[in-house]
Amino acid sequence: EKYRSVPMADEDFDDSDLPDPSLRNIIDQKSLQWVFVGGKGGVGKTTTSCALGVQLAKSRDKVLLVSTDPAHNLSDAFSQKIGRDPTPIQGFTNLHAMEIDANDDMEKLQQQMEHATASDDDDSNGGISALMAELTSSIPGIDEAMSFSELMKQVQSLDYDIVVFDTAPTGHTLRLLSFPTIMEKALGKVMELKDKFGGILGQAASMFGGNGAQMQDMLTGKLEETRAIINKVNDAFQDPDTTTFVCVCIPEFLSIYETERLVQELSKFGIDSHNIVVNQVLFPEKDAEEMGEWLKENNDKLPKEAQDICGKMMARKRMQDKYIGQCFDLYGDDFHVVLMPLLDHEVRGVEKIADFSESLVDPVDLET
Q1: Which of 161, 189, 249, 267 has a beta carbon 3.0–4.6 Å from 255's, enabling a disulfide?
Q2: What is the reported pTM?
Q3: Antiparallel, parallel or unpaired: β 95-99 and 87-88
Q4: How far apart are CA 138 and CA 169, in angstroms?
Q5: Which residues lie below 8 Å from residue 235, measured CB to CB, with a gap of 6+?
Q6: What pLDDT sits at residue 168?
Q7: Pairing relation of β-strands 63-67 and 162-166?
Q8: Residues designated as active site
Q9: If DSSP codes are grouped into helix, strand and coil, which group holds residue 21?
Q10: Backbone region of residue 278 per phi and psi (left: phi > 0; alpha: psi in -120 to 50; beta: other values)
Q11: CA end-to-end span of the chain
């Protein structure tokens, strides 16, 4: 294996039983229903998600791309407006995308509850707002958990074959996996308030206007429903037949380090992960040493400016190869490690994404 930084003891080492360096395994696994794409910020998660969605659309009847990152990029990637509801991607009949926002979802939920418990008193809305604000401030992540629950309810009712999640940077993604714990805390908090203060809570809510008991029951009911959905979804996420997580990185220290942390956390939560996409690789099919030898032989023939440019490129190539070597040492035996080339242009628009996506399933030949 070219990128292994530790030489193999056996010179005739057979790497044919190593995982194929492509994402074809995801395309071929027809039982998959949920694919998460995650990693550090700025490593190309959205491009990878979109490219994977395009490839999946070739063999699946209905594919949905969902962005759960507050800084949505799907619209930019496909160069078309994508909203809160599934939007058809131009040029496809079976590929849709949607961008969700936890804050919008919480506001919508609040409005629904206000409408359901509305009284003639204009102040009735204040009770819901106060209750929701108390819950959100005392249990961090509850807004995202409830938003995610609403999303899953919607997605499941739409009957897609497979859903690809373009997730927020690593920290947010890992929080998504801890939603069941957050929901337990939220329900515990509400029940604790109910047990301790019962009537007082009702009176306090009534002071803001509206029916305190009704408001409280409705919130408890909503949290119970959210917990049930999240627990069910979490069971599905821990099943390697239906769910997998694709880690995306670039060949730099911080990104490789973050990937290692992500892989460990996923393992802790029981989420399957056996694919790593390394983006922005300079000439993945070329070897830094061979390129260095060529430059050494020809450097004197080059103008000074070209020497500087080639020197800088070679320094970057050597650094990348070092980290790619580490990546193969860490994961090469168990993971499909896919090297994606650094291109001369941005990957924007359906055509460029479709071209780029071919490298995910038909990677460059590393043996040449």
Answers
A1: 249
A2: 0.83
A3: antiparallel
A4: 24
A5: none
A6: 76
A7: parallel
A8: 69
A9: coil
A10: beta
A11: 12
Which pair of tokens denotes residue 343?
Answer: 């291109």
pLDDT at residue 47, rounded to an integer: 95
Radius of gyration of the CA atoms of the chain, in A = 25
Is 9 a residue whose pLDDT tops 60? Answer: no
Distance CA 248, CA 43 (A): 7
Could you report the per-residue pLDDT of 150-182, keeping only the tens digit for each?
778 888 888 899 999 998 776 666 676 677 777
Measure the CA–CA gap between 79 and 321, rounded to whole angstroms.
33
Nearest of 47, 67, 60, 63 to residue 96 by alpha carbon: 63
Written as one string, the DSSP assignment of 98-117 is EE--HHHHHHHHHHHHHHHT
Q: What backbone phi and psi angles, to 5 degrees, belong to 91?
A: 95, -5
Compute φ and ψ for 94, nearest 5 degrees: -125, 15
Q: Which residue is listed with tokens 């070209």?
A: 306
pLDDT, position 54? 97
DSSP secondary structure string, 193-262?
HHHHHHHHHHHHHHHTSS-HHHHHHHHHHHHHHHHHHHHHHHHHHT-TTTEEEEEEE-SSHHHHHHHHHH
CA 220 to chain centre: 30
222-249 burial by CB neighbour count: b if 16+ within 10 A, else e?
bbeebbebbeebbeebeeeebbbbbbbb
User: Is 255 in contact with 249 (CB distance < 8 Å)?
Assistant: yes
CA angle 286, 16, 251 (to 5 degrees): 40
Distances (CA, A) of 189 to 9, 134, 182, 184: 58, 10, 10, 9
The region, left, alpha or beta by phi > 0 then psi within -120 to 50, assigned to residue 304 is alpha
Beta bridge pairs of residue 95: 63
Strand duo 95-99 + 243-249: pairing: unpaired
d(CA 227, CA 193): 18
